[in-house]
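Input record (one chain):
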Amino acid sequence: MLQDFTLGDTLRFRTYYRTGSGTLFDPGSTWARIYDATSTVVASPSTLTRVDTGVYAYEWQTYSGSHALGPGAFQAFGYAAGATYTTRETLFKLA
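The corresponding structure, as predicted from the sequence alone:
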C-alpha cells in the first residue's frame, strides 16, 4: 500500500545500504532520484544525510502545482569498492 501525501508536505525518505550478507555499510558516495507519477525525475539529490552506519536519509519538500499527482518513487544509489549499489524503491502517492 502506498503512503499518501498532500502537495506541500515534506517527505522523509530513509534508505539502507547492505552487503550481500546483510551487513550495513557506508558507501563512499550517495545520491538519489525522485520520480513523479509520469516517471519524470523531479529531484536528484547528489548526497544523502548519514544517520548511522549504512542508514541514510533525505527530506523532499513538495510544492502545490509543481508535481504530478499520483504514485511516485524514491530510489537511492551508493558507490563503494568499485561498484554501484541500488536500494529498493520507496513508493509514495501525492494526492
